[in-house]
Design goal:
mainly alpha; 2 domains; 9 helices; 79% helix
Length: 211
């Protein structure tokens, strides 16, 4: 199992490998555990939660190993801290603190991110509102240092206040105006292709010389 880390992470990963929890694992176990810490980190940054996913992955990790789920959870918590420099709860709390400190300028920025969804869908290739909104929320979350869920909520609040309409209702209109016609056109093209191939085969047989 191969993973790619930036330079700062590489140092932390090396430290994690030699930590109390890391040095007792095989290379395969360590690689799997580190991958799980990445999944949990993404969940914290997405939704500000980790306990349910941690429990699920600890149980799955331990299922084929010689330690129980509680030990697996301890290993994952230790390696997470070694890799990120924070405990899972510290990361969660830092995201909450930054959300509580959001400024008016940052809220205006969130409104612009929401408005840009329209251009993304209009100019994109079969891009749904759900996907475009999630992408904008994730990018905004990274800039503001909050969760994806918080970023999306702030985008919705600011759009609703400025436009007097719901962001998700506008999203439905965008899907109907841009996404659905693209999908219908693709579906129509797929249906026409077999018929065109059959017609080509028929013409080929008709042109073939008789023996």
């Amino acid at each position: 199992m191969e993973h790619y880390y930036n330079n700062n992470e590489k140092e932390r990963v090396a430290s994690a490998r030699e930590s109390f929890s890391g040095r007792l694992l095989t290379d395969a176990q360590f690689g799997e555990a580190m991958a799980i810490t990445g999944i949990i980190e993404r969940e914290i940054k997405r939704a500000g939660a980790f306990k349910e996913k941690l429990g699920d992955y600890a149980h799955a990790f331990a299922r084929t190993e010689r330690f129980d789920a509680m030990k697996a959870e301890t290993i994952l918590r230790d390696l997470f801290k070694e890799r990120t420099g924070q405990t899972m709860n510290q990361m969660r709390e830092s995201l909450i603190e930054r959300e509580q400190a959001i400024t008016d300028d940052q809220r205006q920025q969130a409104y612009q991110y929401a408005c840009d969804i329209g251009d993304m869908i209009e100019q994109g290739n079969k891009l749904t509102f759900h996907r475009a909104c999630a992408s904008q929320a994730q990018t905004l979350a990274g800039e503001l240092g909050v969760t994806d869920v918080a970023a999306r909520r702030i985008m919705s609040e600011e759009f609703n206040a400025a436009e007097g309409s719901q962001l998700h209702e506008w999203g439905k209109e965008l899907d109907e105006q841009f996404y659905r016609p693209q999908v219908e056109a693709e579906k129509s093209q797929r249906e026409q292709e077999p018929q065109a191939r059959r017609q080509n085969r028929t013409r080929t047989r008709q042109r073939a010389p008789s023996r």
